[in-house]
Amino acid sequence: MPKIIKKIGAILPIVVLTWLLTTAVSHGRPPVHPSDVDLGKKRPICTECHDESAGGVVFHRFNHTVYFADNHRSLARQRSEICSMCHQQSFCNDCHAVNTELKPSLRRQTDTYRRTQHRGDYLSRHRIDGRIDPTSCFRCHGSPKTAKSCVRCHG
Amino acid sequence: MKNRQFKMRYAVVGLAVLWVVSAPSPSSATELKFTSDTMVWGYERDKNTKRDILVAPLYEFLQVDYGALSEAGFSLHASGWGRADVGDRDFFADNETGELLYGYLEYTTENYNLSTRLGRQYVFEGPASESIDGIRVQGEISVFSFSGFAGLPVALDEDNGISGDAAYGSTLRYRWHEFNKIGLAYKHVTSDNNRDEESVGLDVFMALPKGVDLTVLSTRNLVSDDWAEHFVEARFDLFEIGFRPYFQLYQYEDYFSVGTNSANPFRYLAETNEELTIFATDLSKVTDSSWEYGAKLKYYDYSNLGDNSQYFSALATWHGEALTQVGAEIGAMAGDKPQNEYFIYRIYAYWAHHFADIKPGFVSADLVFVDYQEEIHNEDSSLFASIGSGWYLLDDSLELKLSVDYSSDPFFSDDWRGMMALTYKFRSEEG
After folding, report:
1. What is the pTM of this model?
2. How far is B352 from chain A (nearest CA, A)?
């Protein structure tokens, strides 16, 4: 291999790393959403305060409109760091920690403003929903720990 | 084996303590946040030997957050639950009586949005959706963001203990034109030294012209060496209506794991070679007059079953002050088989109100009626009704909630349940 190639090969990673560190942009994003902003008992509509998109964040995607609870999977998969600015893991656990014995709608029985899963008689309805799209069950009940409510009947 | 599990877990905790003690604290503001949720339910159930026994589980959900909670620095986070049986003590005999859901130390920096977590935690990243006892690092450098995790998978600790178990993975994302992102994620789960799951995920987000957002997610199962899932979603506004058309494709053999980190009925489904394709769209419209409308259209198609199903729903919600809302939703699951068909109707309300001498509280109500096309256990419908109320006391740090619900359905003819919950929130701040 020519010497010049070897030299470039040795120097290039250092140059790239230096460039990355010196041009690093943290967007000035705090680890948690500023507490002096009133995020209290109301629906979080991010674009009431933020632009539609700014600082690397497309804010309108995070507006908690009526179907947000149904459709937040792709956001959580791609931008979990944005979710964690406002939500502790305990908030996610209300629905996603399925080994807590209480289904989401019972854990937050009086929070009828949330579209919690399995509201009402889901024991009957899940026979149909499960036949039609079992992939939606698997996401939360797919491990030995989280399938304990399934194996009682399904073996 | 249990001893080894404890030793490993204590080692993780010990490492975490050493990590905190040895590192200088960059933060001067230490906060303590504590939330206690105490909840007692009461209802009747039948057992083989006795009828109408009183079941009254008392649940306690605890959450503690301590350290630099509002700025960069060290912090400790823990959450868990426990249950005591006030009524019949045998009803939950086969269930666990509590669990630590998460307990980790976190170190965050302002530079590079770096976050390091050590301890029990949930990891939602790419194809990974795991609870682990281990470490996770996440950060951003310039146009790149990265994350990595490694630890013991909590879900597998009951299967021959933790010896030979491991879960690890990483994600690398590249951002261009400020908002567009492409990411590649990897996940590997080992059970008893055997490769249990291995997958790679691709995700793309693009902010296209004319306000169109495009998301693509794909997951490839490296054990079966085929695609498990494809998901394509677009979001855009047209005539002031929000559209969200999406497409999903699942190959059961590759999507459902058949290894130790899975369970029935999914292991069975993995052997069916079924392929599910979903074409769907959500529509939503928010008006200035506080009304919000939504609709869902969903079409399911199967490669082997040879039939298909369709789901339609529509809702209207009125929003008032704070979380006040009143709404109604109607939906229908239709298809080629009567056993898969139903109509669902829901009316819901949450009213934040002010009593004369009592702190603001709320009243909530819910009514769900389902009409099944084919009977389930000789019943063709389900009715669920719930009403609740809550009061805020002690400067809103204490919340008392009461609710009563009723269900008449294929499994329970006249089922009444009562619930009382007390939520206490404490937050302190020091210098």
Report:
1. 0.86
2. 10
